[in-house]
Queue: 2 jobs
Job 1
Amino acid sequence: MNDRPWWTDTAIYHIYPRSFQDSNGDGIGDLPGITRRIPYLSSLGVGAIWMGPVFRSPQVDNGYDISDYRDIDPIFGTLEDMDVLIETAHRNGIRVLLDLVFNHSSNRHRWFVESEHNPDGPYGDYYIWRDPAPDGGVPNNWTSFFSGPTWTWSPIRGQYYLHLFAPEQPDLNWENPQVRNEVADVARFWRARGVDGFRMDVINFISKVDGLPSIDADAGDPAGSMGRIIDSDRVLTYLQEFRSRIDPDGEVVLVGETPHIAPDDARRYTARESRALDMVLLFEHVMLDHGPGGRWDPVRWRPDALASVVAAHQRLLAGTSWPSLYMGNHDQPRIVSRYGDPVAYRVRSAAALATYFYLQRGTPIIYQGDEIGMANLEIDSPEQLVDVESSNAYRDLVDRQGVAPDEALRRVRDNARDNARTPMHWDGGPHGGFMPDASGDGDGDGDAHPWYPVHPDAARWNVAAQESAPADRSVLAFYRRLLRARRTSEPLRSGEFAPLAADGPVLGYLRGAHDSEALVIANLSGTGAPVPPDGRTQISRATDWQVLLTTADLAANLEESPDGADESGVAANADEPGQRSPLADLAPWEARVLVRRLA
Ligand code: ISL
Ligand code: CA
């Protein structure tokens, strides 16, 4: 038994409820649908789920605009459905994290309605209200993450209110102790129903610098500008206060989403002695393809840049901090499309990326569908951009920046959040098994349709197909092997991290435990490559390296089989680690994991 907290010794599965499993045929994923899939999650080998927000919400930002923190939105089910889900998850050895969105609420929350209509009442100071600037305009020059202004005028109250996101998402005023009491009360309410932890939405934004000063024009990079609007010391104080109120014994896991956080703050907030957050969700690795104009000015990402960011994050969160390891989520495009090769090496590149990323020191957070290699949509029309951030970005490019519609679509489509929000693929049946076929005649044209179209390739890329496929053609089977390797290999569970020098697209690192070590080397390209010099040096130190895993055993794609496969298409020793020599050249998209015991 180790004294490390449970969340350092497991993987978390991130569910986007509206796109996971619909149980009642209305085309929207729901809580009973998640409950139905708990056995699948248990078979995957994850020890916890993080569910996106399912609380009452007008759904302007798909639930990240909450109008009642203590009730379930009817599109997802009821409080009783949540109780059943939590109980079923716990019975299957799976803990439950909810998504607390407390930097802002919905403008339809009663607190905001009260605050707007009754400025001198008990809720008058729950939000960030300001008079117009001397010139009658907005109070400062901040901009919203969702394009456009970050202040909206209320004719009812005769003041502006702040919203770092959509106008329907007014920022709560955390400087007000009453607001902080409300947040703690909500967390205690869910703890009492058996919730094991919380993912905390943009939690580093909760305290803004006094006076809300405009940002100097020279503050080009988003990180810099966030550093100019956030008071990070008070953020830490408020997080410590929150923890002390809801979790005096340190049993609750708190994962803070912290876009553009300064590295020192990431370390401060997660250091065990700080008693604030347990992990943060960092962003540099999901901004490698952001060009000079940011997310909507995409450039090609570079593997050596990924290696540098990974090494920097590991260095930053060494010691008493603990990294979270996510590559995809509901705000990011699909991993295999963004970092892999979804055309020529969809199976093997999905597996190679997972191996490189999830065997680092830290807790893997796997986003629904990445474990079966789900890919980006073919977005060829602005109508397919239904997400508030993506559609606003498109409109802003065309209407405000005068970019031609085709060029604007080209700049938004690959990074649009819609890519990761297509319904989960369960089987090759109607709607990919995401929703019951309402008409029941098996052609999936019942009166209801999924809230967002199912990806056209669901018939081939789905859980059922990969459950029955030979191991060498199943991303799902590989994810199971990968998570099992993490659970059973001491250096992968708890070993210290040391990066190898990147050599073009070949990246890697060492994981060193007290009595054993592991070496992870990944060729993130479609061409063969030698083991890099740094890796060669490490491997040549000893002669007893064992190959624990290699993606060279996997087919490049669903149809093909790897070299040396027998007539049934199953790679030689597909269930056994590759028989390759530790120093053999790396195949295209080969990630190789070596382990050895120290003498
Ligand atoms: O990546 C982003 C900014 O660079 C945005 O896609 C995202 O809005 C940001 O990461 C914050 O995300 C969280 O808060 C948003 C919500 O839209 C996202 O879904 C949530 O993950 C506002 O609540
Ligand atoms: Ca439903």
Note: Residues 6-104+177-377+448-466 form a domain with the TIM Barrel fold (CATH 3.20.20.80).
Job 2
Amino acid sequence: MKTITTHFINGKFVESKGKEILDLINPSNKKIIGQVTLGNEEDARDAIRAAKEAFKAYAKSTLAERIHYLQQLHDAIAARADEHIAIRAKEYGGVYLHSQASVSGAAKVFLNMKKSLSEVPFHKKLGQAEVMLKPVGVAGLITPWNAAIFMICNKVAPALAAGCTVVIKPSELSALQTQLLLECFDAAGLPPGIINAVNGRGDVVGNELTTHPDIAKVSFTGSTAVGKSVMRNAAETVKRVTLELGGKSAHILLDDADLEKAIPFALTAGFMNNGQACIAGTRVLVPEHRLADVKAAFRKAVPNLKVGNPTDEDTVVGPLVNEKQYNRVQSYIRKGIEEGAEILIGGEGHPEGLEAGYFVKPTIFVNVTNDMKIAREEIFGPVLAVITYKNEEEAIRIANDSVYGLQGWISTTDPERGKEVADRIEAGIVMVNQLYDLYNDAGVPAGGYKQSGIGREFGVYGIEEYLQTQAIFEK
Ligand code: NAD
């Protein structure tokens, strides 16, 4: 059992001033595997002070220095990739394939930022003015538990590239994963105070970051409900805000879709990361006349997905993160039944033989209408809602009939048609027939429309979130 009693402040692991202790539980067997001491407001203020002090020098660092630090951070994380994957399975239930991509993505984001940094127009002559891009100041980074270290790295990298110093408030449910990452940050050998991190609750440490006057920018990834309160808090001191929030993305199977490809794609899009993915395609829109074939294809494919031990390399769906999430998903399955949807596969309870952990049955509902709760609300588990449509217009209308707009998914044998439909989907990213590798170095922006968020991450777009312009007129 590992005990974490420290935060990472000003280049050192310092004992927590907060005293509350939280048990860390392995979701595959509900055993306690560690404990973390949660920080209080004072810990948060210490970290903000360190970041503010470090900002004075770091804001003036050269691009060469930043590039050097980004490389060091990449190397330090990559060197311990296997440990990151192992602890992600143990603390979170992350299955091997997803963890491998997520961990290598977390390291790679630092390399990608080196490339993107060279594309940022830091100086520009406009008319009589010189326009410069300058770091906004100390950034507060608040992250969720579902891709813990990737989410942290995907904020730290652009913030540091821009010249900001940071205070991280990771999810309290990911303390073991965070600790290993902080050891990597420490090993990277950056000057003290550039990266700081405080474990703690959202309403304590998170709240301090969103209200403290010395935090210039908050980048938050998490639920839409908390995101709204972050924005309200940040308004008081007019902080810059990036919000990466929830989703209820539609996967449109166009009437020409090849089900041999579209059904496995729908399962990948829907059940990735044990169904705990903001971008998951959880509403599967199917042409009415192809419903029988779609049902048969799901019935055939789902039993072949291995649910179980996340460390087995062939496991597709592992456990949910904790008891709260397990109960939440069960309650949505009950709501679906109560609202009149029909369970095609799965349902309430544990899969047979997996009663010891927070495992749920991959579940597919049919006879769903878009006004049902299971079609409107983010469930965050391996539960798909199949909704039928009469024609393409109706499919697009249903896809866009959501408060969310994070992602769209389309299956078709005609890529041109897929692109035309994608153009009409209200979402930050639309994937036509493919699971695009977000971790590549092209710097493609990701982020939400509507209540899925504000701002963008990745590439130059991601760095710009941490910059502000200054125009100097000189005679
Ligand atoms: P959450 O909103 O409960 O918590 C996210 C973070 O915010 C945690 O660190 C939490 O401690 C902190 N927090 C909670 N209350 C706070 C407050 N009052 N002030 C400041 N911080 C506070 O989300 P979660 O349950 O950890 O993660 C799941 C959610 O994250 C899902 O809704 C998912 O869609 C979303 N998500 C979005 C993206 C994206 O890129 N759009 C990516 C991953 C997850």
Note: The first strand starts at residue 2 and ends at 4.
